[in-house]
Design brief:
Blueprint: E1 4-9, E2 14-20, E3 22-25, E4 32-35, E5 41-54, E6 57-71, E7 74-79, E8 82-84, H1 90-103, H2 109-133
Parallel strand pairs: 1-7
Antiparallel strand pairs: 1-2, 3-4, 3-5, 5-6, 6-7, 6-8
Helix pairs in contact: 1-2
Family: Belongs to the ATPase epsilon chain family.
Membrane topology: Peripheral membrane protein
Subunit structure: F-type ATPases have 2 components, CF(1) - the catalytic core - and CF(0) - the membrane proton channel. CF(1) has five subunits: alpha(3), beta(3), gamma(1), delta(1), epsilon(1). CF(0) has three main subunits: a, b and c.
């Protein structure tokens, strides 16, 4: 399988930089996978789990939004937050979800819709992290 270069950058750090076989991205319009030779594209990333495959190794990284750009030079993801899944503090993440739930009643209209959508994404991440942690 052909490889391509992948950079995952957040404001705090370069979370990943190297050659990979595949990257699965939680896109705002739906999840998508990137392989070598992928057509150029720029996509918005929703909160979710990004999966990096390099050989037999898979690494899961929690991203909380951002932008992905595929070009002839490879894939670059500029993430608002990027944390390797094993480094996520599950109690802190649960507390964040609880705070988000408590803030829902004060929102209306489009703001309410966006808050519910973001909460759903966070709950999906939490579910996957809890499921993964058990295996």
């Amino acid at each position: 399988m052909s490889t391509f270069h992948f950079d995952l950058v957040s404001p705090e750090m370069v979370a990943f930089s190297g050659d990979v076989d595949q990257v699965d991205i939680p896109g705002a319009e739906g999840d998508f996978g990137v392989l070598a030779g992928h057509a150029p594209v720029v996509a918005v990333i929703r909160p979710g789990i990004l999966t990096v495959t390099a050989g037999a190794n898979k690494q899961k990284i929690v991203v909380l939004g951002g932008i992905a750009e595929v070009s002839d030079k490879g894939l670059t993801v500029l993430a608002d937050v990027a944390t390797p899944a094993p480094d996520v503090d599950l109690q802190d993440f649960a507390a964040t979800i609880q705070t988000m739930e408590q803030q829902i009643p004060g929102k209306v209209g489009d703001e309410l819709d966006r808050a519910i959508e973001r909460l759903d994404h966070f709950k999906s991440i939490q579910h996957e992290l809890n499921t993964t942690a058990m295996h």
